Structure formats: C-alpha cells, structure tokens
Amino acid sequence: MTSAATLPRAVTVRAPAKVNLELHVGPRRGDGFHALSTVYMAVGLYDEVAVATADDWQVTVSGPYADRVPTDDTNLALMAAKTLAAEVGVAGPVSLRIHKDIPVAGGLAGGSADAAAALVACDHLWAAGLAREELVELGAALGSDVPFAMSGGIAMGSGRGEQLAPVLARGTFYWVFAVSSTGLSTPAVYAECDRLRGKAPVPAPQTSAGMMTSLRSGDAEALGRALSNDLQSAAVSLQPALREVLDAGQEFGALGSIVSGSGPTVAFLTASAESALDLCVSLAASGVAGEVKRAKAPVHGAHVLPGPSRV
Ligand code: C5P
Q1: Is 296 annotated in the active site?
Q2: 159: CA distance to ligand 1 center in Å?
Q3: Known catalytic residue: 145?
Q4: Beta strands in 76-214 (DSSP E)
Q5: Which pLDDT value is given to residue 290?
Q6: Which candidate in 18, 100, 123, 293 is catalytic?
Q7: pTM of the full predicted structure?
Q8: Is the separation of the CB atoms in 148 and 118 below 8 Å?
C-alpha cells in the first residue's frame, strides 16, 4: 500500500472499443449465455473514466452519447467501482466522470470499456494493488467483454467471451464504423439469433484457420475475407436498414464489412489510412450511414493516463 500522503487524488483511465473479427455463436447454455468462439480486436475509439474521492457515489457523463448512458445504479462503471470497493474493503465513495466517445448499445463494448476503466482507475486511486488476473475476474462477473477491454490487443475469447487467449498478429489495421442512430439490445439480438435458428442442433463454436493465418501474416485483404459474425443476420433482422449499410461498404471498396458484435454498428476494414478516409467520405456522401468514425487497431487495453484529469 502507498502512504495516504502519496495517494493520487484523481485517476483517469482510457479504455478502448472492440470489434469481433469473428463471432461464432454456439448453443445457449444452462445459465442463459451462449457458448462463443470469438476473436476480439481492440480499436482506437476510447472512453475515459476519471475517478476521485467524494462524499457520495456519483456518476456524470459527457461526450456525444452522454444522454444515452444511465447515471443510476445500473451504470456499469459505478457497479465496477462498488464491486472493487467491496472486494478490497474500502468505504469508497468516489465520483466517476465518464467521457464517452464509444457509441452506446452499438456492439462495440462501450459499457464494458467503462467498467474496465473504472476497475483499473479505482485500483490505482485506492492503491489496492490487485493483480491483473484479480481485476479481470471481477470484470468478468460484470460483463462478458470486460476482460478484453482490460487486455486490449487481439485475443481469442471462449466460454461466454470472457476467457481470453492471446493471438499472434502483426500489422496495423484501418477501420471505419457506421454508427446507427438507434442501438440494439444485446439480449434481444441473441434471442433473435435463437429464433432464426429454430430447433436445429447448433454445433460447438470453433475458430477458423483462415482468421488465424490472416492475422499472423498481417494480411488485411485476407482478414477482410475472413470476417464473420453469427449474430449478423439477427441484427439485420431487427434493423433491416443495416443490409444497405453493409452493401455500401462493399460497393465503396472496403476489404470487408461486418456487423460489430451484436450491432448495430457496421465495421468496415480498409487497406490504409487513406482508403479509410475515402470510405468515410463516400459513406457520408451516399447518405446511407448517419455518423461515421475511423480508428486504427489493434490498440492497448485499459490504461492509466498520466497527468491531471482530462474528463
Ligand atoms: O455479458 P454481457 O453483459 O455482455 O451479456 C449481456 C447479455 O447478452 C446476456 O444477458 C445474454 O442475454 C447475452 N449474451 C449471451 N451469450 C454470451 C454473451 C452475452 O447470450 N456469450
């Protein structure tokens, strides 16, 4: 433990969004979750969470999606901070200031990024010194994508997505995201996937060899061809306009187009920073996609930002 005199008064942590390069959804398990085999890539769209000692627990949210984030006890960052407080035996109260740049309910794991950021930030603020594995275990209980928001990079996810194994990869990848003005609820998308599948037996999910080869060689074209998502047809079924967005990416030269996670954000892989910019311009001009964002990947997981709080 650090002495009280040297404890930081406020800590800011930045955590990234993710895209699932492939998402194979297996059978629904007894606990209601689906067995997954997925490959996550952390992308350079970030939320920042600043925590500071306070008289009461409180959450404030800023940024373009602020009005869509709850600030009550259902806020995932607040839940994360309280979970850690209970675990390490501090009374807590902290104020959490969240700056959101990751679209809400978009399939980019923004809520998980906030939870991961809050865990890392509070661990630092309280000088609790938990091992990464302990923080990851607490995070997994809060959401299937929280462990990956901590690790970042590229990883294979199994179980319900929370069990991670590193993936060998090289290169930088350039993504464009078409953000929908209405979100999709993750449980609703999984339920729609089950409905579309009907009663047919669902095989155990497996990672594809093509995906691993494309990542090992850093081959963006091969990666574009290998992108796949079992939740895509469910997301399109719930938001049929996504079909047009996916088609537009192909038409404008993306190497691959895919619904990110449970959607409705559509992720386009491009060949270079210039191609990404061109695609953004074409998508915006066509009017098919409302908001368009660009990001490089892979990037690091949740990490403390040096210097005074920025949010
Ligand atoms: O873990 P997370 O909070 O992201 O899960 C949200 C919901 O998504 C779950 O309650 C469940 O309905 C669905 N889900 C699932 N199988 C997974 C992950 C999530 O059915 N592997």
Answers
A1: no
A2: 11
A3: yes
A4: 94-99, 154-158, 163-166, 173-179
A5: 84
A6: 18
A7: 0.95
A8: no
